[in-house]
Predict the structure.
Amino acid sequence: MKHFFIIAILVVAFTFLLHTGLTDIGLLPKQASLQAVEIDKLFNVHIWLISVLFSLIIVTLVYSLIVFRRKKGESGDGAYIVGNNRLEILWTMIPFFLVLYLAYLGAQSLGIIRQVDTTAMVVHVTAGQWFWKFEYQDSGVTSSTLYLPVGRQVDLQMTSLDVIHSFWVPEFRVKQDLVPGQTTELRITPDLIGTYHVRCAELCGTRHAYMEAPVYVVSPQDFYSWIASQASTVSQDPVQRGQLLAQQNGCSNCHSVSGSAGIGPTWQHLYESQVSLADGSTVTADADYLRNSIMTPNLQIVKGYYPNVMPDFSSVLKQTEVEDIIAYIQSLK
Ligand code: CUA
């Protein structure tokens, strides 16, 4: 009985020590959303469980090694023990109720995290290989960076052009896949002004690791002045509009304008040049060719770029936007 008592005290002491240590080394990034608070409560429960289990096992093990080691002159066998029903019941029932309790906590947190705020700001998110595009429903502003006003829930309506991607800002904790042909939803209420990054959390091809976009959480005033500045910068010049569209839609991630080869062919001197295709034929890169390459990229694949990885933009770009991008490519002749 004396040994149980000593081990119990050691386990409790070691548990608190370990929990303090694990909490203090900063395992988790900054907490920057209301949803993060709920997720971190769950993490805290798990850190407690980890601390208890680790202490229970290690303290008992080390204590036994030291106190019950074979003493000088001892030569007999240890006691022969056949089962212990009470212990078996105990170590089955404790984890059983623990798992039920964790399921209850998980369901409760999920409910809180997915709570709908009717004043939420809707942002449509489109992901593709390999870019993020954000479209603000109320103002029609499109951007490749995500600006969010602090303290207001944002309702991300998300879809993918090609393969599965996953929206993840570690400081917001929550994560959601973007699936082609479906719209998935993620709600976040940022509550800390700062600069973060959305990173893709689903392996999606060659440039998966670089599929990042900046996320700025700013004051409501700063947010509205940013929206106003974005809305007023729509140029009268199709070439300038095309250049902006190429950035916003991720074109420039794969197509250089400097002549260097990227994931896709360069746009420098492309217009009206002779392009060799993978099937051995040659075409002139006129406006029709460029339009088809944007809308049905699988049909004419440039030599050296087979198999095609370019997403189909026919559901993303408006006809006028395609013409603007073509105007931009023409200007790079
Ligand atoms: Cu998109 Cu990984």
Observations:
- The first strand starts at residue 121 and ends at 128.
- Helices lie at 2-24, 34-67, 85-113, 220-232, 238-248, 251-254, 287-295, 319-331.
